[in-house]
Design a protein that fits this description.
It is a single chain. It is built from three helices and four strands. It is an alpha+beta fold. Strands 2-3-1-4 form a four-stranded antiparallel β-sheet. It is elongated and about 45 Å long. It starts with a strand and ends in a 9-residue tail after the last helix.
Length: 110
């Protein structure tokens, strides 16, 4: 398993995405969170939906996924929010060290 991951999550608006991103950084659950406006076309409860959303791209330690998920779910209005973890299989060593230095260890307490 990779030590580092990218987690993606979508939000219905910029304000909720920005607030969640700030919480993730403040709690040292993420080293960096990028926000992108997107348009999503998807199937929900038998209907085709087309919505503007904001996607968060979260860089963190793999071991923090459960805490990140809980933080996103606590702040989210969607019944089933998108929360997907992708392992970082390789990266610039200095960048991975930066992620490491700027996120808490699972053993650290708040």
């Amino acid at each position: 398993m990779s030590d580092f991951s990218v987690i993606t999550a979508t939000f219905p608006d910029e304000n909720s995405a920005k607030n969640t991103a700030g919480t993730l950084i403040e709690r040292r659950l993420a080293a960096c969170v990028q926000m992108f406006p997107i348009n999503s076309v998807y199937s929900w409860k038998g209907e085709i939906c087309n919505d503007d959303e904001v996607m968060l791209v979260i860089k963190s330690r793999t071991e923090l996924f459960d805490e990140i998920t809980a933080t996103i779910k606590d702040a989210h209005v969607y019944e089933v929010p998108e929360i997907i973890q992708l392992p970082i299989m390789n990266g610039l060593p200095e960048y991975l060290k930066w992620i490491d230095d700027n996120t808490k260890r699972e053993s650290e307490t708040d």
